């Protein structure tokens, strides 16, 4: 347990309470043990589980990573974007280009594609950050549309109809599915660790202060522009990673699939349902969305109506999302980022 205990001043009478600053809770410690056990169990799935369930896990993992990055950007940073699919698509297409045309192993190309998406975010931020509020949201969507139209006019990658990932043709299907699964599992663990570590740092505190008030944050010495830039780049990196992983598993990509605004719409749905501004929220939201998509997507328009109705119900009766409500009602926190002051009484000194 990470704790800081105050020294007892020489002038303080014996018997008065000491204080401790704790950052972990009993629930978080238990969750950590369970999480390690689940990761170890999941890592063994390629040796005993059906391939269909591994593909489902990869899909859930991509949903979660993309939603977690949107939550970091909007839920913690206050930068509401509806154009994060730009980096999702870039990740997918860079992975495909490196694999099909450069000869890079597609599995090696996945992290390289994520880096490319993060690097692209730097010049794009110069455009997006000129806008504020709703204009920023619309501006990010316009950037994504420009990228979609650009890729749709590149015949080398199939133009508007897309193309297939041929670089994996020489790899056995079982090997391909197992490696894709392990990469998705590692990416999910890394995404949680990255977001959790960032939010527990001084930069994380600066980010949440920036969300509440940029003016007040700047007056306290926080470099607002630099903080926003780094969060934007990290969110783009994660979105690119999700896109590269998704299309490695899907084996085919097209501009309409990669740059669809539905990706951001689904991310918003997952974060709002699970709990915006929490690490647990996107995890819960991704599981709920996957379950609804798996069992009800065949209903077409009624499925979309059901998603909208559920989102309205949660926003009306659970304004902080399902996990946000549980956290507020029962104090559940599997990934605590706040410090708690705990008082304790020292033992009485012997006479």
From TrEMBL:
It is found in: Cell membrane. GO terms for cellular component: plasma membrane. It is a multi-pass membrane protein. Keywords: Cell membrane, Membrane, Transmembrane, Transmembrane helix. The keyword Phosphoprotein does not apply. CDD domains: TM_PBP1_LivM_like (cd06581). The chain crosses the membrane at residues 27-48, 60-82, 102-122, 179-199, 229-248, 268-292, 299-318. GO terms for molecular function: branched-chain amino acid transmembrane transporter activity. It comes from the Bacteria. InterPro entries: ABC_transp_permease, LivM-like. This is Branched-chain amino acid ABC transporter permease. It comes from Caldimonas caldifontis. The lineage of its organism: Bacteria, Pseudomonadati, Pseudomonadota, Betaproteobacteria, Burkholderiales.
């Amino acid at each position: 347990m990470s704790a800081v205990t105050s020294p007892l001043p020489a002038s303080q009478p014996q018997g008065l309470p000491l204080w401790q600053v704790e950052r972990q809770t009993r629930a978080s410690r238990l969750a950590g043990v369970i999480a390690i056990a689940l990761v170890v169990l999941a890592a063994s799935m390629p040796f005993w589980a059906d391939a269909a369930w591994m593909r489902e896990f990869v899909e859930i993992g991509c949903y979660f990573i993309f939603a977690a990055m949107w939550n970091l950007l909007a839920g913690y940073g206050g930068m509401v974007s509806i154009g994060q699919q730009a980096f999702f698509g870039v990740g997918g297409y860079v992975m495909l280009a490196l694999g099909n045309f450069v000869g890079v192993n597609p599995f090696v190309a996945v992290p390289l594609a994520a880096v490319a998406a993060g690097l692209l975010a730097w010049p794009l931020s110069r455009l997006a950050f000129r806008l504020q509020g709703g204009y920023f949201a619309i501006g990010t969507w316009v950037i994504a549309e420009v990228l979609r139209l650009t890729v749709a006019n590149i015949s080398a990658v199939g133009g508007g109809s897309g193309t297939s990932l041929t670089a994996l043709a020489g790899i056995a299907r079982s090997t391909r599915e197992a490696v894709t699964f392990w990469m998705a599992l590692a990416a999910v663990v890394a995404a949680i660790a990255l977001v959790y570590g960032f939010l527990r740092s001084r930069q994380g505190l600066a980010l949440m202060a920036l969300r509440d008030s940029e003016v007040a944050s700047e007056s306290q010495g926080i470099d607002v522009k630099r903080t926003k830039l780094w969060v934007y780049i990290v969110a783009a990196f994660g979105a690119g990673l999700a896109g590269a992983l998704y299309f490695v598993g899907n084996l085919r990509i097209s501009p309409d699939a990669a740059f669809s605004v539905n990706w951001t719409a689904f991310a918003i749905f997952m974060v709002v349902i699970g709990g915006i501004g929490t690490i647990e929220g996107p995890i819960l939201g991704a599981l709920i969305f996957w379950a609804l998509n798996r069992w009800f997507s065949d209903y077409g328009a009624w499925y979309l109506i059901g998603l909208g109705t559920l989102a309205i119900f949660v926003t009306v009766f659970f304004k902080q999302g399902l996990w946000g409500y549980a956290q507020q009602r029962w104090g559940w926190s599997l990934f605590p980022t706040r410090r708690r002051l705990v008082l304790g009484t020292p033992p009485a000194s012997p006479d």
